[in-house]
Amino acid sequence: MTEPAAVAAAPKGEAASGNGDRVLLEGPHSRTREFWLVVRAFRDFIAGFRALHFVGPCVTVFGSARFPAAHPYYALAREVGAAVTRVGFTVMTGGGPGLMEAANRGAREAGGRSVGCNIELPFEQAPNEYLDRSVTCRYFFVRKVLLFKYSYAFVALPGGLGTLDELTEALTLVQTGKIANFPIVLIGREYWQPFVDMLSHMATAGTVGAADLKLVMVTDSVAEAMAHIQLHAIEPFGLRRRVLTPSPLLGERAPATGEPRP
């Protein structure tokens, strides 16, 4: 049987312009092109694992890239970043502007570690200036793996579709037991109330269990959120500082003295 014709190769530079996911997902390519797409994803994973191996334990903070520095939510995100630092975690974000920048900034200002997993986009989302270490991913699915791999809690600040995607991914991973029962906190009760109502509606309809409603904590208090994370992340998992030996062969370096370690 004749093999179906492959979709024409994307123009050079398409992946570099932020369309790597589109090329990957647009349908079947030639076997050779499919192989190289997988290799690129593999390289994304390896680069991320090497860059972030020594940064944890982390709390990942989700939030919109669209809020400017003058917005009250930006100030809230800075407060969250500082608070996460004070309870002993590294702050991890998507590495971009808006509330991601604010959380990284709060961590930096509080003397903590600040890292980001950025993504190549057609409109050139650049890493923010408050990152101690960052990695830029070609593929969204690689970025999401990195955001979850090193974190013991997740904080969702007001955001759009990207934030909702990451939040529901965290809920699904915990619900299905794919990751441990790490705490998930929504900060901004008024903003998140429609989402909470939707979860209640789903429970009533039977599409989620009543116990699933307990997977999220909703609050307006940063202090309350941090107390919840301490209770449900630090104590159950026995988090403590430990030393991982870097490999000179791989060009790795350990965090400086006093920096958080996994």
General description of the model:
This protein has 262 residues and is of the alpha/beta class. Helices cover 45% and strands 13% of the residues. The protein contains eight helices and seven strands; from the N terminus they run ααβαβαββαβαβαβα. The protein has helices at 15-25, 31-52, 72-86, 99-109, 140-149, 161-175, 189-205, 222-237; strands at 58-62, 90-93, 114-119, 133-137, 151-156, 184-187, 216-219. A seven-stranded parallel β-sheet has the order 4-3-2-1-5-6-7, with helices on both faces. Helix 3 links the parallel strand 1 (58-62) and strand 2 (90-93). Helix 3 packs across helix 4 (99-109). The longest helix is centred in the N-terminal third of the chain and has 22 residues, at 31-52. Residues 1-17 and 255-262 have low confidence and may be disordered.
Short description:
The chain has a single domain (47-238), classed as Rossmann fold. The protein contains 8 helices and 7 strands, in the order H-H-E-H-E-H-E-E-H-E-H-E-H-E-H.
